[in-house]
């Protein structure tokens, strides 16, 4: 909802309630909840999520900030030992934040227990930096100018023992450290797993922002005409040009697909939230899926809002058209809450592992070295609408060739076959690292990087398709079901056409299929063009929320 | 040079000297040159190029502004008859422009002679709008905030007869219209042909801006490390990751390729400028090539500067990293000086026509209807280094399969075969319009639009490759030649890999070639990574001109 209004507000809300509040909820215990949450919810206590440092963004495990226990006073000393330990790009830090959930290495009696989080006051009520705290402002950015990103560093700042968020590890009154999770790696990944909400919100915000841009560009394409054809009288509407349809309609189809995938993961998150102790495997699955959706949907948002800008010509470049700000604000979605390249590798890693036992406990090189057995058939479970999809796939085996392209079961089986093939090939390549020396093992894994990114994408594409199918299955109105079915066809066939090199290379489709796909995509674009107004109306964005000179009169 | 400094300044300069001055030079005659040029060159007379209107951007032939001859006073009446006739997005209009080259329909004694251009004063020396002239400001834009884009409309503004730029059509003292070009369509296309300089400058500026972004991102990739591999000690430099190499190195290769193509077309422009009356065919070829380069290079600039932004993570999103401004400023390059989709169709049209006789005289539907004969073998002439390339292609026929990928002759023949196939297939499809009714003929051409865009791109890719080969051939230093050869390999193989679907679909390569291409691209990335510093130094951008916090100490 926020993202349909203003993305800076979305991120300010995300920082305050999702990250800062989320850290208290997920990493803290009863005292923290009672002490901090009411004021966080009401915004009386604006706060920061101080994880990233100048020196370490993606590699959170290597943050340098220290949280050292001082038994004499039952306090912690929070300190930035180097310039690269400075907390960086932190939302709410430059102006509004009064406290921060600070990630650092916990030291107790000379032993480091790895990354933990502690609540540190950073500003007094007058807005002045607390003693020992240095605050900076990153100044102008490429977008999100309503968010006060800044730096924080600490010069031996003392905070009470109780401020350590101790759900997964803390110090008792005798100064002894204990944790319910013995393995430090598993503990770390459990703690950073709290990022899952942030990633889901970024993915959802990306979809909403892009739907808004698509609404503006499609409306413009239905109003703006240019050039005449001989004998046809009226100038031709932009959206009647095939090339223009190809720019917008497959992206409208994706906007629907991605919306269903967001609905699905939000429900999955809620189900996990509803149980006291979630099953670790389910928690890991959710994290993998959130990582994949965040990467794929934010990439699409960046690309598609740009397409929308260009589809409006020079008019789209004027700020009052309402598109360039969306583009600038979503830009950073590709790298914050996890760099997309890192997240897709996380997905690939998840696909290769037996989640329950080894997830997160090995880095990728070790994983490659120890990948003793092939991931079996079981690695790929259907994630939504299992019964429906099982039936569709079985039926497809009897579908005549001429009708294959719009056969949902065939579509699913193409996505599944691609994913299975890519993961199996990746596992085979990575197993070559077994028994190699450090440099050689790294080289093997490094050479697989583009393969890993591809694996992460095709896995996510399949998850999205399954969510789309489940969404359509739940619709009762036959006309809506029919139209969503056409959108699903366009989503799938456009995806297969984009990736035709892979299918041809691996003999998964005959050469002639490419032109069939192209014709089918063009045909669906032409068919859906007549429903274009309905399709953008279906995004459900209130007209009054879209501030754009390109929308015409109400 | 300007583009390495500031893109707003580049565009201000382009408007003043390229467009406004260019209109006087190319469309005016001696009196205009003597009267206006000295003050244009010195910037004492800032001016506008007032072509685009609210209602008509790409379709310049349909502008609505009227230029009506008034015989009683030997004046012209310049008028905006509708709101959509308002001149829009005009650089220099909102603030600095004192005069404008205004495009409008010329009416003489009740007859319309089509689009002509006239000099109209729009502001007095105090900066106030002249009587009858209404000036507006587009306000904030997605970028180029140093350019004052605005609107201009005219309420029966009178200007002297002499102000009509009359090189291609004017009124004598007796009020009689005459033109050296009898055919109104040919006259129109000759006049708008003056845009060719603007397009070349946009393409060149796009390359320079992208080289600057690549310099910043590559420098960062050589300084910034993240994550450790087991047993390897130091953290790993970003540019040592394969996925990171794949982001940057193929784009560095393109930056070299595109630089050579800009050098080539600049020389071609100069050659044409050096003769009094250029051969029409050569002029048309230059226009087609400029259109293609502008479209391909501006697309690449947009995409690649974004890649550079993301390759620097959150740090790249800070404005003082120096990348987001480049991204925002180049954004509009995709649609100004001709929308890329329109320009690529212009290229395709050029490929299909016998330039000298029919270019510009038919719209695309008519062209399709009248395409009586196939474009022959002669349509594809080598554009640079003919002798060298002829020899390379001949030699390639004896190259063993294992060495094909890095055989320059084979590379050229792949680009040529693709272009020939695509153009021939396009011609066949478009000939189906022959004898059809208006709607059906439009439908045939409209269905070919994506095909036309593809034709425009592959033609331009071949032109670029030829310029690259000519550039390498002219280098004497063997080490430089060798390194440029590697870059050329990467440019070609990355292009073929990107487009592998087309080659597989049309049986132009075996399936196994795709993996060979992938391996070769990865191998070249790994090899060129060790020269990364040298390669960005080779862009020749003075360190002092790059204002970026990511460049480290000098």
UniProtKB/TrEMBL annotation, chains A, B:
Keywords of the record: FAD, Fatty acid metabolism, Flavoprotein, Lipid metabolism, Oxidoreductase, Peroxisome
Swiss-Prot/TrEMBL GO biological process terms: fatty acid beta-oxidation using acyl-CoA oxidase; lipid homeostasis
Positions bound to FAD: 52, 91
GO cellular component: peroxisome
Acyl-CoA oxidase C-terminal domain location: 412-550
Location, primary (coarse class): other
Catalytic activity line of the entry: (2S)-pristanoyl-CoA + O2 = (2E)-pristenoyl-CoA + H2O2; tetracosanoyl-CoA + O2 = (2E)-tetracosenoyl-CoA + H2O2; hexadecanedioyl-CoA + O2 = (2E)-hexadecenedioyl-CoA + H2O2; hexadecanoyl-CoA + O2 = (2E)-hexadecenoyl-CoA + H2O2
Classification via InterPro entries: ACOX_C_alpha1 (IPR055060), Acyl-CoA_Oxase/DH_mid-dom_sf (IPR046373), Acyl-CoA_oxidase (IPR012258), Acyl-CoA_oxidase_C (IPR002655), AcylCo_DH-like_C (IPR036250), AcylCoA_DH/oxidase_NM_dom_sf (IPR009100)
Active site: 337
Annotated compartments: Peroxisome
Pathway(s): Lipid metabolism; peroxisomal fatty acid beta-oxidation
GO molecular function: acyl-CoA oxidase activity; FAD binding; fatty acid binding
Gene3D superfamilies: Butyryl-CoA Dehydrogenase, subunit A, domain 2, Butyryl-CoA Dehydrogenase, subunit A, domain 3
Span of domain Acyl-CoA oxidase C-alpha1: 193-351
Pfam family for this entry, one: ACOX
Cofactor requirement: FAD
Family as reported in the entry's similarity comment: Belongs to the acyl-CoA oxidase family.
PANTHER family xrefs: ACYL-COENZYME A OXIDASE-LIKE PROTEIN, ELECTRON TRANSPORT OXIDOREDUCTASE
Protein name as catalogued: Acyl-coenzyme A oxidase
């Amino acid at each position: 909802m926020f993202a349909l209004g203003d993305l800076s507000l979305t991120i300010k809300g995300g920082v305050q309630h999702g990250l800062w509040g989320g850290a208290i909820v997920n990493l803290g215990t009863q005292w923290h909840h009672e002490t901090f949450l009411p004021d966080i919810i009401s915004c009386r206590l604006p706060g920061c999520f101080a994880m990233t440092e100048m020196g370490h963004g993606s590699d959170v495990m290597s943050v340098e900030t220290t949280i050292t226990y001082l038994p004499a006073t039952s306090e912690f000393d929070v300190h930035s030992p180097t310039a690269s330990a400075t907390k960086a790009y932190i939302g709410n830090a430059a102006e509004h934040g009064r406290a921060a959930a600070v990630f650092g290495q916990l030291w107790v009696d000379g032993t480091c227990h790895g990354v933990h989080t502690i609540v540190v006051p950073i500003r007094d009520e007058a807005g002045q930096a607390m003693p020992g705290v240095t605050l900076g402002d990153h100044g102008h950015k490429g977008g999100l100018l309503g968010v006060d990103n800044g730096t924080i560093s600490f010069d031996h700042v003392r905070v009470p023992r109780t401020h350590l968020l101790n759900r997964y590890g803390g110090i008792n009154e005798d100064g002894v450290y204990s944790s319910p999770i013995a393995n430090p790696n598993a503990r770390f990944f459990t703690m950073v797993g709290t990022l899952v909400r942030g990633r889901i919100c970024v993915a959802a915000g990306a979809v909403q922002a892009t739907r808004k841009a698509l609404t503006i560009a499609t409306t413009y394409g239905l109003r703006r005409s240019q050039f005449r054809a001989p004998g046809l009288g009226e100038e031709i509407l932009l959206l009647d040009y095939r090339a223009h349809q190809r720019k917008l309609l497959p992206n409208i189809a994706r906007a629907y697909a991605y919306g269903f995938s967001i609905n699905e993961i939000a429900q999955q998150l809620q189900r996990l939230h509803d149980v006291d102790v979630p099953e670790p495997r389910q928690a890991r699955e959710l994290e993998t899926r959130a990582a994949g959706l965040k990467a794929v949907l934010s990439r699409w948002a960046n690309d598609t809002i740009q397409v929308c800008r260009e589809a409006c010509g020079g008019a789209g470049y004027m700020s009052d058209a309402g598109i360039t700000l969306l583009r600038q604000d979503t830009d950073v979605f590709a790298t914050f809450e996890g760099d997309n390249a890192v997240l897709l590798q996380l997905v690939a890693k998840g696909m290769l592992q037996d989640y329950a036992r080894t997830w997160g406990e090995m880095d990728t090189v070790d994983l490659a070295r120890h990948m003793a057995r092939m991931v079996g058939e079981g690695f790929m479970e259907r994630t939504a609408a299992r019964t429906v999809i099982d039936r569709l796939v079985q039926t497809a085996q009897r579908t005549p060739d001429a009708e294959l392209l719009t056969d949902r079961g065939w579509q699913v089986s193409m996505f599944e076959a691609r994913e299975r093939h890519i993961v199996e090939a990746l596992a085979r390549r990575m197993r070559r690292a077994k028994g190699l020396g450090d440099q050689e093992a790294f080289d093997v894994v490094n050479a697989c990087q583009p393969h890993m990114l591809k694996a992460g994408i095709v896995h996510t594409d399949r998850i999205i398709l399954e969510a789309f199918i489940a969404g359509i299955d739940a619709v009762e109105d036959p006309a809506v079901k029919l139209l969503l079915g056409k959108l699903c066809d366009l989503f799938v066939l456009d995806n297969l056409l984009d990736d035709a090199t892979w299918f041809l290379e691996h003999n998964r489709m005959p050469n002639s299929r490419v032109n069939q796909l192209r014709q089918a995509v063009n045909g669906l674009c032409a068919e859906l063009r007549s429903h274009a107004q309905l399709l953008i109306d279906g995004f459900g964005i209130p007209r009054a929320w879209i501030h754009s000179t390109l929308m015409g009169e109400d």
